[in-house]
């Protein structure tokens, strides 16, 4: 569990800070009194949205710096930071397949740039790196722990694994306190719902909010969705807790549910008129489909005392309630 | 075993073709009557040497193109090729740690460029990719098969794994016949002996040829050295044999021997006056040291009928005999 007092007055950098997870983290840090800089390149098709940093709670402050980690001088941004939450990434699987050069430039090459800048400007800073279950690929045995072999199913998986490994080398070779959190599907307020680039649930939420039916592809695949407040707590706890440093952890969420079950929960939460149709998984995506996934996150629970607290029913209802009055900013 | 008739008149591209393994492959292809283009960027500190392509046997031809795969237009070079042997790489472990941006640019980003060029210009070509045992890192169980978890011990391991995985995706998603060979330490004629950038044995050979003692760091670490003719045969067999396509294989060599034992064989082969001193493994390299390694290469032997044929005594004697009259070109 995160300790609010830990953050009072701390200078923190959040890369990808205007994105879905990054912005939620900025808000939580500001609420705890941290001095936050959100760096974001507002990549086309990514999760960044200026609306994500509105309604900041205080007493801390959030400063937004627009800049692309592939190009911007990172040293001044790292200078004097106690903690860096590193969420800047190209996260779209189809995007990675369509433009693998841009994908590796953000997810691996720019990570090396950031590592080098931090050696000069923030040699003591703690880093929590947003990693992903993506590069486990299609797994045979569930739940999945951190010893699962790496078998990236797409270009995005290749680049994200490389980026994570550069960070872990920075721990092993240069002794920086680094934690990598391999996230599963996350959802909640500030998710990109314009399209399906941030999990299937984004486009489902949009359809429901607009009163249209949504499509479930396949339906039997299992997912352990993490509500964004639980993700935020995991990042904070990883930074605070030295027992987490130098380690890689899988992060789970609600108990695993099939896509069909998640769709049913969404329809029930949305009320009268909401509906979905089940379709076959599109053949052009089958080659990068990963089937079912849910995490064995006992290692992280033991090291941090973290546990996910928000179930699917509660999280989906909260997401709908959050988006309804803010729809215009998210389309 | 490679079938010489397979190569007669074939148009082949060898990236890294002026390097140690690439040039030996070019010679073998020319001897079998192939039309070979050797592409090489002559990277500073790499294995490329213009002398490597001298004494070409014929009846085939070797054309050398000087060009850096990070920048050159690759499409014309790929056009009309039946087979591409892909050996261009930044292979130095210390080099990767010193300049990880250059390392990933060659070993991963440029691989994506080559993959994209080949989609346009050589959609049917077979690819054999030179991969490495390097990213297994420090292993606990010997011998090492292909299911060994990936744990890159340095930046070079991160980038080489990413590059290999992009090639395997090209097989899985786009059905290109691709084979990746994870090589262990290779040695023989045309090795870079100027310094220790291409295995410890390079600098040992130089010292012995110059009549100086050489240093053995540690000494108990096991290695299964592959003589270059056996490596060449493995590449040819992988290209020829459809049972190898779409697969990753570990490639071994002579039975495992300790560094001290290898040093003794070298001293005996060199004759009167040759000697070595044993030193502690340098502490500044300990963080990226991998300890002992030898490969379980039964999968490749079964798929290709290949087996290494040159033992350490024979290979080291042949290396000394080859370098003696050619020393001036290799310093």
Describe this structure in words.
- The structure is a homodimer of 331-residue chains.
- The first copy, chain A, is of the alpha/beta class and 331 residues long.
- The first copy, chain A, has a domain at 4-190 and 227-253 and 295-311: 3-Layer(aba) Sandwich (Rossmann fold).
- Helix content of chain A is 37%, strand content 17%.
- Chain A has eleven helices and 13 strands.
- Chain A has helices at residues 20-31, 75-78, 93-98, 100-121, 155-174, 199-209, 228-240, 259-270, 283-286, 298-304, 312-323, and strands spanning 11-15, 35-40, 61-66, 83-86, 126-132, 178-183, 186-187, 214-217, 222-223, 226-227, 247-251, 257-258, 276-279.
- In chain A, the strands form four sheets. In chain A, strands 3-2-1-4-5-6-11 form a seven-stranded parallel sheet, with helices on both faces.
- In chain A, helix 5 (155-174) links the parallel strand 5 (126-132) and strand 6.
- In chain A, helix 1 packs across helix 7 (228-240) and helix 8 crosses helix 11 (312-323).
- Chain A is globular and about 55 Å long.
- The two termini of chain A are 34 Å apart.
- At the A-B interface, helix 4 and helix 5 of A face helix 4 and helix 5 of B.
């Amino acid at each position: 569990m995160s300790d609010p007092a830990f953050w009072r007055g701390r200078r923190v950098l959040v890369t990808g800070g205007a994105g879905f997870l990054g912005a939620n983290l900025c808000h939580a840090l500001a609420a705890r009194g941290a001095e936050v800089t959100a760096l974001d390149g507002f990549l086309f098709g990514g999760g960044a949205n200026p609306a994500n940093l509105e309604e900041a709670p205080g007493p801390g402050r959030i400063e937004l710096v627009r800049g692309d980690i592939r190009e911007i001088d990172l040293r001044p941004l790292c200078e004097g930071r106690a903690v860096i939450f590193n969420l800047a990434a190209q996260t779209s699987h189809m995007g990675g397949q369509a433009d693998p050069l841009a994908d590796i430039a953000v997810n691996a090459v720019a990570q090396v740039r950031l590592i080098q800048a931090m050696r000069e400007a923030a040699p003591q800073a703690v880093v929590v790196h947003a990693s992903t279950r993506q590069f486990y690929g299609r797994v045979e045995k569930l739940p999945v722990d951190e010893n699962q072999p790496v078998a990236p199913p797409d270009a995005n998986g290749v680049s994200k694994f490389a980026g994570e490994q550069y960070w872990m080398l920075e721990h092993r070779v240069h002794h920086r306190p680094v934690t990598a959190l391999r996230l599963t599907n996350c959802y909640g307020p500030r998710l990109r719902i314009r399209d399906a680039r941030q999990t299937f649930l984004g486009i489902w939420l949009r359809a429901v909010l607009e009163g249209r039916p949504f499509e479930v592809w396949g339906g039997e695949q299992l997912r352990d969705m993490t509500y964004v407040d639980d993700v935020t707590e995991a990042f904070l706890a990883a930074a605070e807790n030295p027992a987490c440093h130098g380690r890689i952890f899988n992060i789970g969420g609600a108990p695993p549910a099939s896509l069909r079950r998640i769709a049913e929960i969404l329809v029930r939460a949305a009320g009268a008129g909401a509906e979905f149709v089940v379709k076959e998984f599109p053949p052009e995506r089958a080659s990068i489909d990963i089937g079912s996934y849910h995490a064995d996150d006992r290692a992280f629970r033991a090291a941090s005392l973290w546990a996910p607290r928000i179930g699917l029913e509660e999280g989906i209802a909260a997401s709908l309630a959050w988006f309804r009055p803010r729809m215009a900013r998210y389309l």
